Amino acid sequence: MSAAAELYDSVAYVYDDTLEGLLSAIFAAYANGEDPLDVVPERSLQPRLGQRVATIATNAHHADRVARTLKGQGGWRTFAAVRAAAVSEQPDAGTAAYRFVRYMMDEQKRRDCKRCRKRASCPGATGRGPCPRLRGRALSDISHPAVAPIHRIERSVSQECEHMRQFIRFEHLQGEGVDVWFARCNPKSSVIPLVMGHFVERFNVQPFIIYDENHGLAGVYEGSRWYFVRAEDAPELPSQAGEERLMQAAWRRFYRAVAVESRYNPELRQRFMPQRFWKNLTEMQDELPTALAPLS
């Protein structure tokens, strides 16, 4: 088949911009015996010339099967890489995840058990399980064209998760029957589902809400369980607790007090503390440029 004919025969799989949707699309590719040229969320769909578009419905059972296969065949880190691609805003993230899964599964099939000293007791030697020696190895081959994109995306998402753990600031809100800690954030990728566990461990039984302004997603912890709520607009909130303004002022005073004036380096600060986070950082409110200053 010529390159032109192959292009016209290509198919794009479209999913619903969730991890379950991406895993369902990967399942459908194997179940249908197809090799889609593109696997993209609805928001990133740009069909190629003559390309057929197939919308893949999210199926929780299929997604769970793929997730268990990824963890079993490639290890937990492999699943984490695909999960990172599912929350990434990069348009090629879904395709990168699919190509990587194909590569990882093919690597497992190429295993050679004849010279392995553990083949007598290894379930992989008889085809009843994955090869322990190959589990997770595919992700380390970052020079391979099927691995390099997913590695790049995973690093970007991991960096954004670290930014959220460092730069999220909570304020204490109280109202009629309401006592909660609230934080706004604006990550490039929808990483709140990946960092909620970090804050749940630290808040323990204290209810809190983290609202992602960019993606209209709120992570809600009630003190015993947590879940997510879609909210295109910021939720209506009670007023600040009595001591909140005093605590914020004390934190800004501490931030200024520990600064070393002779080592002031605004360029370096912007590199480690990107300016896009400043509007939600308590300690930066006095230094916000006029264009970024919140309306009073």
Features:
296 residues, five-stranded mixed β-sheet, elongated
Can you summarize this structure?
The protein is of the alpha/beta class and 296 residues long. The protein contains ten helices and eight strands.
Q: Overview of this structure, please?
A:
This protein is of the alpha/beta class and 296 residues long. 41% of the residues lie in helices and 14% in strands. The chain has ten helices and eight strands. The strands form two sheets. The protein has a five-stranded mixed β-sheet, covered by helices on one side. Strands 2-1-3 form a three-stranded parallel β-sheet. Strand 6 and strand 7 (217-221) form a beta hairpin. The longest helix is centred in the middle third of the chain and has 20 residues, at 148-167. The radius of gyration is 24 Å and the shape is elongated. The termini are far apart. Mean pLDDT is 85; it is low at 4-8 and 290-296.
Can you tell me the residue ranges where pLDDT is under 50 for at least 5 consecutive residues?
4-8, 290-296
Strand order of the largest sheet: 4-5-6-7-8
Secondary-structure element sequence?
Answer: HEHEEHHHHHEEHEEEHH
Extended strand count: 8
Distance between the termini: 64 Å
Based on CA atoms alone, the radius of gyration comes out at 24 Å
Number of helices: 10
Give average pLDDT, whole number: 85
Sheet-strand content, in percent, reads 5-15%
- What level of helicity do the residues show? 40-55%
Structural class: alpha/beta
Shape: elongated
Task: Report the sheet with the most strands, covering strand number, pairing sense and barrel closure.
Answer: 5 strands, mixed
